[in-house]
Amino acid sequence: MKSKKLSIAAFLLLSTLFSALNAQTVSGVEKPKTTSKPSISDYLKISGNLDLQYDYESSEKNNGDKDEISTFNMRRARLVFAGDITPKFEFKLQVEMAGKSPKVLDAFAKWKLYDEFQIRIGQGKIPFTIENPYAPSYLTIENTMVINALSGMADDKLCPGTSFSGGREMGVSFMGGFIKKDGFKVINYEIGVFNGNGINVKNDNKQMAYVGQIEIKPIKDLKIHGSAYLGSYETETEADAERNRFAVGAEYASTGLMVRSEYVWGTTDTEKDAQLVNQKSDGFYAQAAYNINIKCSGGKTQTLIPVIRYENYTADCDIDDTSTYYLVGLGWWPEKHFRLQVNYTIKDKDGYDNLGHLVAAQATVKF
Questions:
Q1: 351 φ, ψ to 5°?
Q2: Contact in structure between 358 and 57 (CB atoms under 8 Å)
């Protein structure tokens, strides 16, 4: 009987101690925090942007024909699903809704093993040129001619045979950085193996495209870049048509001044009148912009970014086709998620008597 009473007393004592440990606050001691099951919002971020564009362009050809365009355009309508499932594993899915039908732009997973070695598997921007990884409307409304042609694979205006990829490919790449200094890596690299024939399609031959870049940052705000794309694709007459291109450039980007310049060149075998023709192309651009922050009443900050750009692109198939563009523009952020841009471009093109003029305006809403 005595033993039974002791057992009951011991049970009551343990119960009292357990209740005290789980109390919200007892004599200033807080209840230990409990961990809840992670929800999808902990690692999934949904964002996107809408770009409404207006273009007015006027030009006159050597034969006297005039080209004039005035149009509104839903340039982009994108949804982005991205996140970090773990600190070392991230993913991204970007879908373009504008156009005749939706299409997947980015769909990849990235495994961040170490700062020096990471793996990305799937579809995304290839590591070629400095400008390609940036959003097309980062500073100006559209990318430069040479980037669209040689990084975006749109170099078929004279000799059809390739299709526009937007600088993206399906494949696997390896990246990382070495020599950490003041919060940045001095040497950064990325190399990869890709299908080499655009987005959302399988490879059309047994050859792959090999792409790589290296960037050296002697100081935090300056990087010196070199990259190469070595690949082939299938045409009507050739199973392994050559498509090689190279780029060198530099960029200085501080909190205020942003300056970037690149020279890109390459050769592409393309179809011309049922024959394979080696198309040689090259281009150069230089641009500068300045970030101006304006403090307004109520503590808000608006941003203005004036930009200027010079670019030249030459495609050589059976004739020379050279274009030189001069651009001035202004970007204005009245709100954090709303941007207005205006670009004025003077176009000096072979085959046109007079200079062409393009006025482009774009409103961007980000969410």
A1: 95, 0
A2: yes
pLDDT of amino acid 152 = 82
Residue 69 CA: distances (Å) to CA of 55, 56, 324, 346, 360: 7, 5, 20, 15, 11
DSSP state of 168: E
**φ, ψ at 334 (rounded to 5°):** -70, -25
Is the per-residue pLDDT at 162 higher than 70? no
Please give the backbone phi and psi of residue 148, each rounded to the nearest 5 degrees, phi first. -60, -40
* 366: its two tokens: 């980000």
Q: Which two tokens stand for residue 122?
A: 């799937």
What is the distance between the alpha carbons of residues 226 and 212, in angstroms, rounded to a whole number? 9
Six-digit token pair at 315? Answer: 């495609």
Give the pTM.
0.84
260: Cβ–Cβ under 8 A, 6 or more apart, which residues? 130, 131, 249, 250, 251, 252, 253, 286, 287
Q: 23-36, pLDDT tens digit by residue? A: 444 444 444 555 56
Query: Is residue 327 packed enough to be buried (19+ CB in 10 Å), middle (13-18) or exposed (0-12)?
Result: buried
The widest CA-to-CA distance across the chain, in whole angstroms, is: 117
The H helix count followed by the E strand count for the chain is 2, 19
SS3 call for 149: helix
What single letter denotes the amino acid at residue 255?
Answer: T
Label the pairing between strands 184-194 and 89-96: unpaired
What integer pLDDT is reported at residue 160 of this predicted model?
47
Distance CA 110, CA 87 (A): 11
Is 96 a residue whose pLDDT tops 90? yes
> Measuring CA to CA, which residue among 171, 195, 274, 257 is closest to residue 222?
257
CA atoms within 13 A on the CB side of 286: 0
Query: In angstroms, rounded to a whole number, what is the distance separating the alpha carbons of residues 206 and 136?
Result: 31
Tell me the domains of the chain and their CATH numbers: 43-52+76-366 (2.40.160.10)
Residue 220: CB atoms within 10 A of its CB come to 13
Q: Tell me the pLDDT band of 317, cut-offs 50, 70 and 90.
A: low
Q: CA-CA distance, 62 to 354, in Å (whole number)? A: 8
